[in-house]
Write a structure and sequence with these properties.
The chain has about 400 residues and is an alpha/beta fold. It has 15 helices and 17 strands. Helix 10 crosses helix 11 (about 245-255). The longest helix is centred in the middle third of the chain and has 15 residues, at about 170-185. The protein binds adenosine monophosphate.
């Protein structure tokens, strides 16, 4: 999938507004994790180097269309300046007079950061008039917020109707890596699924079932599959209403020659608590008063062997409750297996959200081919959906 991106002649000397995702965690009025800010530095740098004036727009939290200073982007302004040494000026609105005044007074090399888009309810409604107002003071728009690209909002979609628009480097890297895995995988192709619920991953399983060679299922979702096979799962998570789906998938996988690998052993505890004593049990004989909170060591080894034999791996969802140290081992072992597969030339792609948080927790995020910055967006991409914030840039799509 090729996207329309900018070249120097498109933007030199132009006023460019860039949609970033600065939806960062804040603690005591300060940015407590810079990951999302750092992800956009390459695009901003490329625009500055090409001679553009750069203004940034983003959402932060869920102010629900109201001007709530708890969700102001002002703290991000200071942090961006600190991290880069750039002269970053905060504009306390994202449309209207305050923006046009700042544009009139714009100094060379200064970056403008505009106030939270979601202070206006029109943003999430993909409102055209609001989008037009967002574009009004600028000559070009660059979409760089991959993690917001599964939403059709005024700043991710409608704005492209009002000003020449291009995709940024972050979006391009995401789409290159995710589509290499989804659309052009070298075989064997292994999909690893985990996380709490089957229901969140149904569309991914349906879309990928015919494409992959093997699916490794861990996390809470594995127990619905185990139960569908008639196993005792004790107090483990189970989505009763998804048992039929799980049984159907197991059947279809057989028909298509796809191997679905379920846990053979699990780490269990009596309670969903970090200090609840943990035991390793066979996956088909979990005691009635225990719940499975991680894959066991034999399963981790089984999964690692499948990953070692793969040429393409997509991973979405942790293997257990990785936030609690006693139940993080399975997820860590899978992360390690991805790292060694990457070293051996396998393309390894980690979906955003909890799998990205897990691999970062183990400090292995730089040792795999790609960790997506978008949880919902990467999930929808693997579901085979056309992302509304990406669609306008797909070359050959019009
Ligand atoms: P998801 O957002 O669907 O990827 O789910 C991620 C969450 O699933 C994480 O917060 C994990 O703690 C949780 N999780 C993983 N395995 C289990 C399990 N066996 N039981 C309960 N929760 C789990």
């Amino acid at each position: 999938m090729q996207l329309k991106t900018f070249s120097q002649s498109d933007i030199a000397g132009k006023k460019v507004v860039v949609r970033v995702d600065f939806n960062v965690p804040l603690a005591d009025g300060k940015v407590s994790d810079d990951t999302r800010i750092l992800a956009h530095i390459p695009t901003i740098t490329a625009l500055l180097d090409a001679g553009a004036d750069v203004a940034l727009i983003s959402h932060l939290g869920r102010p629900k269309g109201e001007r709530n200073m708890k969700y102001s982007l002002e703290p991000v302004c200071a942090r961006l300046a600190e991290l880069t040494g750039w002269n970053v000026k905060f504009v306390p609105d994202c449309i209207g007079k305050k923006v046009s005044d700042a544009v009139t007074e714009w100094k060379k090399g200064e970056i403008l950061l505009l106030e939270n888009l979601r202070f206006y309810s029109e943003e999430e409604k993909n409102d055209k008039e609001f989008a037009k107002a967002l574009a009004a003071d600028f000559d070009a728009f660059v979409m760089d917020a991959f993690s917001a690209s599964h939403r059709a909002h005024a700043s991710t979609r409608a704005i492209t109707e009002f000003v020449p628009s291009y995709s940024g480097m972050l979006i391009n890297r995401e789409i290159t890596m995710l589509s290499a895995a989804r659309d052009n995988p070298k075989k064997p192709f292994v999909l690893i699924l985990g996380g709490a619920k089957v229901s969140d991953k149904i569309a991914v399983v349906e879309n990928m079932l015919r494409k992959v060679d093997t699916i490794l299922v861990g996390g809470g979702m594995a127990f619905t599959f185990l139960k569908a096979l008639g196993k005792e799962i004790g107090k483990s998570l189970c989505e009763e209403q998804k048992l039929d789906f799980a049984a159907k998938m197991l059947e279809e996988a057989k028909q298509f020659g796809v191997k679905i690998v379920l846990p053979i052993d699990v780490v269990t505890a009596k309670e969903f608590k970090a200090d609840s004593p943990a035991h390793v049990t066979d996956a088909d004989s979990i005691p009635a008063d225990e719940m499975g909170l991680d894959i066991g060591p034999a399963t981790a080894k089984l999964f690692a062997d499948e990953i070692a034999a793969a040429k393409t791996v997509i991973w979405n969802g942790p293997m257990g409750v990785f936030e609690m140290p006693s139940f993080a081992k399975g997820t860590e072992e899978v992360a390690k297996a991805l790292v060694s597969a990457t070293r051996n030339g396998t393309l390894t792609v980690v979906g955003g959200g909890d799998s990205a948080a897990a691999i970062t927790q183990f400090n292995m995020q730089d040792k795999v081919s790609h960790v997506s910055t978008g949880g919902g967006a990467s999930l929808e991409f693997f579901e085979g959906k056309l992302l509304p914030g990406i669609e306008p840039f797909i070359l050959g799509n019009h």
